[in-house]
Amino acid sequence: MGCTGSSRAKGDDFTKKIRKPKSWKHSEPITKTQLMQMREEFWETAPHYGGRKEIWDALRAAAEADLTLAQAIVDSAGVIIQSDDLTICYDERGAKYDLPKYVLSEPTNLIQEN
C-alpha cells in the first residue's frame, strides 16, 4: 500500500552531512590548556543535561574526529543532525543534544602559552 511517486529518487540522501563550525571568538583570549579544560568540564557534565550517555559518548568521539570519521560515528549511533556543524542534534527518541562550539573547534583568539 504505497504510492509509487513517493519512492526516493536515485541520488537522494536524507542524511545531513556535517561540516566544521563557523569561526567563533571566545569572550577573552584563552590558551589551549584553558580550552581543553573547558572541553573536559563540558564532557564530564554533559550526561546531566539529559539524553543517553552512549549518544553523548558518540558525540564526543565525533567532535574529536576528522569530518569523515565524525560522519560515520553519528550515522552509526543514529544521531539526527539538526545543525550541520553538530551544535544541535537529536537521538532517535527525540532527546536534544546541544554542543557548544568550543568542543567542536578552536576560537580565533586562541593564544600561545608562556
TrEMBL record:
Domain DC-UbP/UBTD2 N-terminal: 15-113
Region (Disordered): 1-26
Entry-linked InterPro entries: DC-UbP/UBTD2_N, DC-UbP/UBTD2_N_sf, UBTD1/2
Pfam family of the protein (one): UBD
Identification of the protein by name: DC-UbP/UBTD2 N-terminal domain-containing protein
Recorded superkingdom: Eukaryota
Source organism of the structure: Cephalotus follicularis (Albany pitcher plant)
